[in-house]
């Protein structure tokens, strides 16, 4: 029996307020695969199809991504996430596990100016995950070092507008912010394929394979790929075997924990006991105050 | 894992690596947008080679891929590729997006030989499952044209 410590973001001492929550999960742990970027479309049937395909392929968690592009010219409203119960009546069960798929909401802010991202805005609280897509080098540096975000998106549809430097990337890795590469553009178009691979390889060179997640930016069910397919793609991008698998499983889980700590402003420490015989659905949680 | 023979009589050192099977086997299922479309085995092989060529160029297209078994009703095929070419073939199948202007997806159902990818208990289920099987070379039947 061994204990494995899964920590979320370590909070700065000033943020610790009152008692800290400690969750202890007892149960077998299998690889949990997640796809944290499924583009939202107003067509309910299409979205339902994507969710069902994701469950069929073995993803335990997906996040519906609302892309928000603020412009300084006209004031735009931050999109309101549609409640999951409205989207789909009964969540499909994940292939190979006994639990239904977990669906989260995520907001991606496409930033071309530093005033576009306002983390204290109340509209951002409705989303479980927060992502930032910087378009200039200054914004990238600021997003890595300062911004209160979980995910930094790397553009895959165009030539990189700036070169990745080690300093901001190391800063982001220390803070627990992850970099995301989407692969469905590579499926759609040949030119995009070149950009995806080029940008991903560039990123892996700078960050040495740490804190990277691979996700689809799927609009249709046929653009999703299974978790082991994506692990193989990770090898193509320059990740090692272990890093590539982590990019679809444990790093994604770290992002979810990071998002929880960001929202509740205190630290969460998960410890889990790994047992040989799998106890089905016997997660035992107790809270220490 | 691989037994190594060494000959020590002569001046040079020769290392012989014995590999049980130089091939990897992939069981794939092609999902098309229009579910009534059917492909013959030759068309499928042509499609796979085109995919390899698009992603990995002439070197990829020169890879020896064989379609060992093919069920044209369910569009399920058993592919064989040399071990060095597994990553190339698998990645080109993943990134194949369209067949004759309709969207498609290759679902890889099984890959032979446990690799670092599979480290949990093997799961079996009805249709799509990530399982690991040892496919023996005796099962090869060249039912399709090379």
Automatic annotation (TrEMBL), chain A:
Q: Does the keyword Acetylation apply?
A: yes
Q: Which UniProt keywords apply?
A: Acetylation, Nucleus, Phosphoprotein, rRNA processing, tRNA processing
Show the GO cellular component annotation of the record. nucleolar ribonuclease P complex
Any GO BP: tRNA processing
- Provide a Gene Ontology MF annotation, just one: RNA binding
What is the top-level taxon of the source organism?
Eukaryota
Subcellular location, record wording: Nucleus, Nucleolus
Family membership noted in the UniProt record: Belongs to the eukaryotic/archaeal RNase P protein component 3 family.
Describe the protein's quaternary organization and the partners it interacts with.
Component of nuclear RNase P and RNase MRP ribonucleoproteins. RNase P consists of a catalytic RNA moiety and about 10 protein subunits; POP1, POP4, POP5, POP7, RPP14, RPP21, RPP25, RPP30, RPP38 and RPP40. Within the RNase P complex, POP1, POP7 and RPP25 form the 'finger' subcomplex, POP5, RPP14, RPP40 and homodimeric RPP30 form the 'palm' subcomplex, and RPP21, POP4 and RPP38 form the 'wrist' subcomplex. All subunits of the RNase P complex interact with the catalytic RNA. Several subunits of RNase P are also part of the RNase MRP complex.
Q: What is this protein called?
A: Ribonuclease P protein subunit p30
Q: Which organism is it from?
A: Amphiprion percula (Orange clownfish)
Automatic annotation (TrEMBL), chain B:
Q: Name one GO cellular component term.
A: multimeric ribonuclease P complex
Q: Which SUPFAM superfamilies does the UniProt record give?
A: Rnp2-like
Give the molecular function GO annotations: ribonuclease P RNA binding
Biological processes per GO annotation = tRNA 5'-leader removal
Keywords per UniProt: tRNA processing
InterPro entries recorded: Pop5/Rpp14/Rnp2-like, Rnp2-like_sf
What's the superkingdom here? Answer: Eukaryota
Q: Which family does it belong to?
A: Belongs to the eukaryotic/archaeal RNase P protein component 2 family.
- What protein does this entry describe? Ribonuclease P/MRP 14 subunit
Q: Which organism is it from?
A: Amphiprion percula (Orange clownfish)
């Amino acid at each position: 029996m061994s204990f494995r410590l899964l920590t979320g973001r370590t909070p700065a001492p000033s943020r610790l307020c009152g008692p800290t929550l400690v969750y202890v999960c007892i149960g077998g742990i299998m690889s949990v695969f997640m796809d944290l970027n499924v583009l939202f479309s107003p067509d309910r049937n299409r979205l339902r199809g994507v969710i069902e395909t994701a469950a069929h392929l073995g993803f335990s968690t997906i996040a519906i991504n609302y892309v928000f592009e603020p412009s300084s010219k006209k004031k735009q409203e931050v999109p309101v996430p549609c409640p999951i119960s409205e989207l789909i009546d009964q969540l499909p069960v994940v292939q190979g596990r006994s639990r239904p798929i977990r669906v989260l909401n995520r907001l991606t802010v496409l930033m071309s100016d530093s005033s576009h991202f306002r983390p204290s805005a109340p509209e951002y609280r409705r989303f479980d995950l927060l992502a930032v897509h910087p378009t200039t080098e200054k914004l990238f540096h600021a997003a890595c070092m300062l911004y209160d975000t979980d995910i930094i998106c790397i553009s895959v549809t165009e030539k990189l507008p700036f070169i990745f430097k080690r300093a901001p990337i190391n800063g982001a890795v220390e803070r627990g912010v992850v970099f995301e590469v989407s692969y469905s553009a590579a499926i759609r178009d040949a030119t995009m394929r070149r950009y995806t691979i080029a940008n991903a390889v560039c990123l892996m060179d700078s960050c040495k394979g740490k804190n990277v997640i691979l996700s689809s930016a799927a609009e249709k069910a046929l653009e999703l790929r299974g978790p082991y397919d994506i692990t193989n793609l990770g090898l193509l991008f320059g990740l090692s075997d272990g890093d590539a698998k982590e990019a679809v499983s444990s790093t994604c889980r770290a992002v979810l924990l990071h998002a929880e700590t960001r929202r509740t402003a205190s630290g969460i420490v998960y410890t889990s006991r790994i047992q040989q015989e799998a106890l089905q659905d016997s997660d035992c949680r107790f809270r220490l105050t | 894992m691989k037994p190594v023979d060494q000959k020590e009589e002569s001046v040079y050192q020769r290392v012989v690596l014995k590999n049980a099977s130089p091939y990897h086997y992939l069981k794939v299922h092609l999902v098309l947008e229009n579910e009534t479309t059917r492909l013959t085995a030759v068309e499928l092989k042509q499609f796979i080679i085109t995919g390899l060529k698009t992603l990995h160029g002439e070197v990829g297209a020169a890879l020896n891929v064989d379609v060992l078994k093919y069920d044209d009703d369910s569009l399920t095929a058993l592919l064989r590729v040399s071990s060095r070419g597994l990553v190339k073939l698998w990645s080109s199948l993943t990134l194949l997006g369209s067949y004759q202007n309709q969207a498609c997806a290759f679902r890889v159902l099984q890959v032979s030989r446990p690799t670092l990818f599979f480290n949990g208990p093997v799961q079996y289920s009805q249709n799509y499952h990530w399982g690991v099987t040892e496919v023996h070379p005796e099962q090869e039947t060249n039912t399709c044209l090379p």
